[in-house]
Amino acid sequence: MSLSLLITYILIGVLAGIFGSILGLGGGMIVTPILVLAFNLPIHYAIAASIIAVIGTSSGASVAYLRDDLLNVRVAMFLEIFTTIGALIGAVLVGIFQPAWLNAFFGLLLVYQGYAMWQKIHNKKADELASKDDKIAAKLKLDSSYYNKLEQKNVSYHIQRVPLGALIMFGAGFASGLLGIGSGGFKVFAMDSVMQMPLKPSSATSNFMMGVTAAASAVIYFFNGTLQPLIVAPIAIGIIFGSTLGSRIMPHLPNKLLRTIFIPVVLIAGIQLIIKAFGINLY
Amino acid sequence: MADKQEITNERKIENGIGWILRVGVFFAVIVMSVGVILLLLHGNTGYGKNIPTDLDPLIAGLISGKAAAWLMMGIFILILTPTIRVFASIFAFLAAKDFLYVGITTLVFIILLFAAFIGLQG
């Protein structure tokens, strides 16, 4: 392998790591299309590489998010029950289900999420928080606070609508198990829009959770030889540096900017799933 | 409102989990980087096209300085990190005497083991 190719892989990783850690999406969404379109790698090798990218982003970024107290460990652990059960059931049902209508369904959901985010940008009350306690959230000790670096103040928040959030998390796990898509978008949506957790803790917590969901399938890819170490390892090294960098930038970015980057990303992912339902693969 | 004791417990849990992640990521990067350096020095993977995926030959490959073995083991450490994080969280919550979350975390860990078992069977 040439030195220039090696450096290219590392740089792809750095880019995916920064992007994935800032949005809470994991960074797999960048790695797969680049490897397929620019490097002509078969799709299953690219997906395996992107799973490792997700794990790298998750672990690399969470170090800083834990230290900054941005991440809500209890929310993550509680919701991981539902994502892991969803992923397990999804993975078992692969091959039994016709995924066409499911692709369309999850695609539409992502497009709706883009719309919801767009509404939030134009709504001045978007970052207003729930003021009342929720019974279930109180019982599970989910309420917490984080330090807002932009406004330099501590923000306490109350988690709402836990059952609906848990249901969406189950769906997110199910989608990643069955369709092999990274489901960070749904995770951020469940926490930010449904459970009324502020955007940055939602994104950081989504990032943290993604590593666990991805690890289960990564083990399988490792032992069945789908991981190409010459490609995956340099990307992973880059990812870890990128996500460490991204997790230091994110607390300083305004919410509006984060949402503005988020919208085209979920829209593209959604539209791609919808046209896949009609049998068209972009890559 | 959380009292002081709860806040300290919270920090302890977060520090413990953060430490696990940092160690996992650190070793993964070091081992993969050794692989990259060996690759540049030798100009080959040490295996040709057929890179093993079982742990025994990979460990043997580490000792004999085969580049691909170091790359694969680094990736393996990275993959294990989130699962070890869940396992270690059980003890972090136990130390904080938060038994509800000891239960929740144990449940997640069991589901993960079950998923890995099913995955490796299929």
Automatic annotation (TrEMBL), chain A:
Name a single GO cellular component.
plasma membrane
The protein's matches in InterPro entries, at most eight in alphabetical order, are given as: TM_pro_TauE-like, TSUP
Q: Topology in the membrane?
A: Multi-pass membrane protein
Keywords, A to Z, come to: Cell membrane, Membrane, Transmembrane, Transmembrane helix, Transport
Write out the transmembrane intervals.
Answer: 7-31, 43-66, 73-94, 100-118, 162-184, 204-223, 230-249, 261-282
Any Pfam family the entry gives = TauE
Cell compartments where the protein resides: Cell membrane
Q: Where does it primarily localize?
A: membrane
Entry similarity comment: Belongs to the 4-toluene sulfonate uptake permease (TSUP) (TC 2.A.102) family.
List the PANTHER family hit by this protein, alphabetically: MEMBRANE TRANSPORTER PROTEIN YDHB-RELATED, TRANSMEMBRANE PROTEIN YFCA
- The protein's name is Probable membrane transporter protein
Q: What is the lineage of its organism?
A: Bacteria, Bacillati, Bacillota, Bacilli, Lactobacillales
